[in-house]
Amino acid sequence: MATQYATVTWDQLHRDARTLARQLMPLMPFRGVVAITRGGMIPAAIIARELGCRVMETISVVSYDEEQQGDPVIVKQPDAAGNGEGFLVVDDLVDSGVTARLVRERLPKAVFACLYAKPKGRDLTDHFVTEVSQDTWVLFPWDTAPLFVPPLVDGGRDGGAAA
Ligand SMILES: O=P(O)(O)OC[C@H]1O[C@H](OP(=O)(O)OP(=O)(O)O)[C@H](O)[C@@H]1O
Ligand SMILES: Nc1nc2[nH]cnc2c(=O)[nH]1
Ligand SMILES: [Mg+2]
């Protein structure tokens, strides 16, 4: 169970996706990009734009219900990617590594990249931008919304420092 949360803004996500694309430039060209849905779709689109990739495929793995992990199942196959040769697989993050392991079994020849990596899953990704601790739950911009926080003088929590 996560003991802390890290909020990623749209700006930060875009910067991190561009940083990852820069890391991947030496591996060009790719035949296409495979996004692990759903979390990998926006990072994959940003990276495909930076690398000039027009061919995009998806693989859908279902394993989490909120923060609770179950057995992973591929509910949509990446048929256009064959065994992954020449393809770049993109996800938002690796946590336990369960999703990445299953996708790598399905696409053994692909290069795997994600924005954020927790220690347990780090070795399952070929590339990542930032490591976060295992007990941190990353909140992506599509998971969150800006909220009104009452001023301290009105009895509000410390919205800036403690949020
Ligand atoms: O390394 P793991 O422990 O497998 O966790 C990482 C996976 O979990 C999240 O996806 P999720 O299953 O929540 O689905 P979503 O992308 O559709 O939100 C995240 O987007 C990764 O794909
Ligand atoms: N949003 C989100 N989904 C996850 N799936 C596995 N770990 C995480 C995480 O830290 N944040
Ligand atoms: Mg996911």
Tell me what portion of residues adopts beta-strand conformation: 25-35%
Global structural class: alpha/beta
> What's the domain count?
1
The total of helices stands at 4
**Beta-strand segment tally:** 8
Mean pLDDT level: 94
Backbone CA Rg: 17 Å
- What is the CATH topology descriptor? Rossmann fold
Strands side by side in the biggest sheet: 4-3-2-5-6-7
Please outline the major beta sheet: 6 strands, mixed
Bound compounds, each kind once, are: 1-O-pyrophosphono-5-O-phosphono-alpha-D-ribofuranose, guanine, magnesium ion
- Specify the overall morphology: globular
How much helicity do the residues have? Answer: 10-25%
Unreliably modeled segments: none
CATH architecture: 3-Layer(aba) Sandwich
Protein architecture, described:
Belongs to the purine/pyrimidine phosphoribosyltransferase family. XGPT subfamily. Its cofactor is Mg(2+). The strands form 2 sheets. Strands 4-3-2-5-6-7 form a 6-stranded mixed beta sheet, with helices on both faces. The chain has helices at 10-24, 41-51, 98-106, 159-162; strands at residues 4-7, 32-37, 56-65, 68-76, 87-94, 111-117, 130-131, 136-139. The protein has a single domain (4-145), classed as Rossmann fold (3-Layer(aba) Sandwich), CATH 3.40.50.2020. The protein has 4 helices and 8 strands. With 163 residues, it is α/β, with parallel strands linked by helices. The relative contact order is 0.19. It starts with a strand and ends with a helix. The model has no long low-confidence stretch (mean pLDDT 94). Magnesium ion is lined by residues 36, 39, 91. The site of magnesium ion (MG) has 3 residues, from loops.
